[in-house]
Amino acid sequence: MTYQWWIVLALGATALTLRVVVPLAAGGRELPTWLRNALTCATPALMAGLVVTLLWPSSGQVTSLRTLTALAGVGVGIALLAGKRSILTAMIGAAVVSAVLRLVLG
């Protein structure tokens, strides 16, 4: 298993812990506002870390095509989030745009 998959698994476990286990541990009590805000912000931050890690090639050589398609995908994701779409929709849109551009251009 490559290091990218270990990162995916670790981030997935962390996101699951933050979004599911912590509220369940609260036992139906209302979470403090600061904790609720931290949990809300943690998942996008983890996803950003995952994107950066997986987009950077292990060889250290970044081609312009790879960079441009990645930026186009991230741009679409940001546009979808700005348009009040869900994080899942933004992630799927970004992945589709990046994949199609890499297929067509490359």
TrEMBL record:
Presence of the UniProt keyword Transmembrane in the record: yes
Positions of transmembrane segments: 6-26, 38-57, 63-82, 87-105
Claim: Membrane is one of the keywords in the record: yes
InterPro entries in the record: Brnchd-chn_aa_trnsp_AzlD
Name recorded for this polypeptide: Branched-chain amino acid ABC transporter
Organism field: Amycolatopsis rifamycinica
Key words, A-Z: Membrane, Transmembrane, Transmembrane helix
